[in-house]
Design a protein that fits this description.
By secondary structure, the protein is of the alpha/beta class. It has one domain. The protein has four helices and four strands; from the N terminus they run E-E-H-E-H-H-E-H. The protein has a four-stranded mixed β-sheet, with helices on both faces. The longest helix is centred in the middle third of the chain and has 18 residues. 15% of the residues are buried.
């Protein structure tokens, strides 16, 4: 998704996927969405300081199914802080826009 504002542009990568085989917040997909994309943003901003990058995973796996049987019960809020939103939550689009704007 590309959002163009007067002074800057925002590019958002939105990846719908199931996370039932995920390793929790340490999963490389989640790490990319949360950490690696910001490293890429820093490199790009050297030549284009008005460009912001975001990446989100929209999990088709329900939260309760995701944490079922896991030793570490990661809260839904922790997932959201790491740019993982859940399709089961009707307000996920609002959460996404709130975070990028």
């Amino acid at each position: 998704m590309w959002v163009k504002k007067t002074n800057y542009q925002i590019i958002v990568f939105i990846d719908p996927k199931g996370l039932e085989h995920s390793k929790g917040l340490d999963d490389e997909k989640i790490q990319f969405a949360n950490i690696e994309i910001k490293k890429i943003e820093q490199k790009i901003q050297v030549n284009n300081p008005n460009l912001k990058l975001f990446s989100f995973i929209i999990s088709v796996t329900e939260y309760q199914k995701l944490i079922k049987g896991s030793k570490k019960q990661t809260s839904k809020e922790e997932y959201k802080q790491n740019n993982v939103l859940f399709l089961e939550d009707e307000n996920w689009p609002e959460e996404l826009f709130h975070k990028i704007l």
